[in-house]
Design goal:
Blueprint: E1 24-35, H1 38-46, H2 54-67, H3 69-72, E2 83-90, E3 94-105, H4 110-128, E4 136-146, E5 153-154
Antiparallel strand pairs: 1-3, 1-4, 2-3, 4-5
Helix pairs in contact: 2-4
Length: 157
């Protein structure tokens, strides 16, 4: 079991000790989407959703979630993020959320980027559910990461 980083010699879960690792610049990009009807998409785009400015609320929620990832995911380290950016793109039947998280540190920010995307998507759902309870959140995934011992990685196209 010693090859599993989050399992100790007795098989118990543990937080990885990153104390001896060198701090490097790290960055992660994640994305996901929420599909919805054309009328809901138009209401969000035009700022006419019942609860107000959907994307502003989702952006703030995503940033806040990234900052709290260490509290939400049991074995994640709490990190001092240097930047979190949340971007939105309208698609034919969806809104795509892309989050970028970065810092200089001893561990990566992949979970922070994915948490930011997930919570931003959930916030869009919450803000627009009065218009469409059938919205679907999907395709949450890591797009790219850089820095650290394993170096750069990008999802296959």
């Amino acid at each position: 079991m010693s090859s599993l980083t989050h399992i100790d010699d007795e098989g118990a879960a543990r937080m990885v000790d990153v104390g001896a690792k060198a701090a490097t610049a790290r960055r992660a990009v994640a994305s996901g989407r929420i599909t919805m009807g054309a009328d809901v998409l138009a209401a969000i785009r035009e700022g006419n959703a019942p609860k107000g400015d959907v994307l502003s609320a989702a952006r703030i929620a995503g940033i806040m979630a990234a900052k709290r990832t260490g509290e939400l995911i049991p074995l994640c380290h709490p990190l001092g993020l240097e930047a979190v950016n949340i971007d939105f793109d309208y698609e034919a039947d969806a809104i795509r959320v892309t989050a970028t998280a970065s810092l200089t540190g001893k561990t990566g920010v992949e979970m922070e980027a994915m948490t930011a995307v997930s919570v931003a998507l959930l916030t869009i759902y919450d803000m627009a559910k009065a218009l469409d309870k059938g919205m679907v959140i999907d395709s949450v995934r890591l797009i790219a990461k850089s820095g650290g011992k394993s170096g750069d990685w990008s999802a296959p196209i």
